[in-house]
Design goal:
Elements (H helix, E strand, L loop, with lengths): L9 H6 L13 H6 L6 H14 L4 H8 L7 H4 L6 H13 L18 H11 L5 H6 L1 H9 L2 H6 L2 H6 L1 H9 L15 E2 L7 E5 L4 H5 L1 H13 L2 E4 L9 H5 L3 H18 L3 E4 L2 H7 L2 H4 L7 H8 L2 E3 H8 L10 E5 L3 H4 L6 H8 L4 E5 L13 H4 L1 H17 L4 E4 L2 H13 L7 E3 H9 L10
Parallel strand pairs: 2-3, 2-4, 4-5, 6-7, 6-8, 8-9
Antiparallel strand pairs: 1-3
Length: 447
Amino acid sequence: MAAQPDPTGELRELASDCVHCGFCLPACPTYQLWGEEMDSPRGRIHLITQILDSGQGGEAAAAHFDRCLGCMACVPACPSGVRYDRLIEGARAWAEGEPDESGTGSARVLPARSRRERAMRAAIFATFPYPRRLRLLLAPLRAAQRTRLDRAVLRSSALARFAPEAVAALAVAPTSTGRAQAGRWPERVAARGQRRAVVGMLTGCVQSVFFPGVNQATARVLAAEGCDVVIPPTQGCCGALSAHSGRRAEAATFARRTIEAFERAGVDAIVVNAAGCGSVMKEYSDLLAADPAWADRAAAVSRTVRDFSEFLAELGPVAPRADLELTVAYHDACHLGHAQRITAQPRDLLRGIPGLKLAELGDGATCCGSAGIYNLVQPEAAAELGARKASAVRATAADLLVSANPGCALQITRALAADGGPPLPMAHVAEVIDASIRALPARSLLG
């Protein structure tokens, strides 16, 4: 007998909100790529409904769910307010074979992934959410880059055929850790001048290992704006990568640990500088809603989460800004623009810097192809989306590309390197503001 995929009826209720109007189609990057109905949000919702009716799905359905970026561009485009984010995460939980929310059965309603796919995904989720483990990979990565072994691997057709995820990971790996080296974080950074707020700062996984300079800039800007910055040493992964991939039980474990860490910190707000992390932390109340011991605590923490740009806009910047004679192109990270609906704040903050000119990308808010682990497990589609994004960036003739998510930074940097054009530096919004507050020369962001 097929497993019951929706014991609470939540997915069926959410799917019934879709009126099949098609407004989601032009917003969906995978529909743009292939023009295939089942690779659109509307088509995937139809597949979900079929599986709910039958209790089982086939390999084709699993493939269409896997090809979804989870970029959420369809959510603001939908006039009916369909919660596609909840629907696709539910479908991915089926693909992962997650236990259902009642805890009494399995949600294996889709074919099991191949042994190779399971091994690769296990390796990804055993590494990326753990900064210490991820940091251990830096030494062999740098050695491979110095000896150009990485280039030989990338040219290997055999490895690309049998382990495309490994090749994709090597392709997007950064060649440096940015403008600063990782080190031990202080537990508190004191406000400069009059204290206006006490905030916690999420250091993240990929952000803390590959982009430590972003965290350092974030802490300096918050302190300059009158915030005591608390950095809990017990924090770890927030659960974003797991949640977006349908691994809800794993995500819930990470969420509980994060909640405990920031509860003890006693802060007014939790400031997050990675779009995907902020999106999930604001949804902790949904993730842990079925857990009576954690539901209220999750909701309380979620209410305090703010993206870096969102928090600065609410607080009101007071630190003086010095001139930065730069033209910057701003890229909307999907989980900031679509999921959190934060688009104006980072642009306003950048426009508030004297001398800085803001250029808009011609492709609007189309996903760059990063999408959590998407560029690792769907490398061909990710590469095509990355190439489109690189073309849009080049068209701005900007001196610097600015975004608010580490995955986007890795993906677009790779795409720009692949198009044969000149190198283009990339920075986080916090790094640009930090350079202006510290009166650093524009070239400090271009090195």
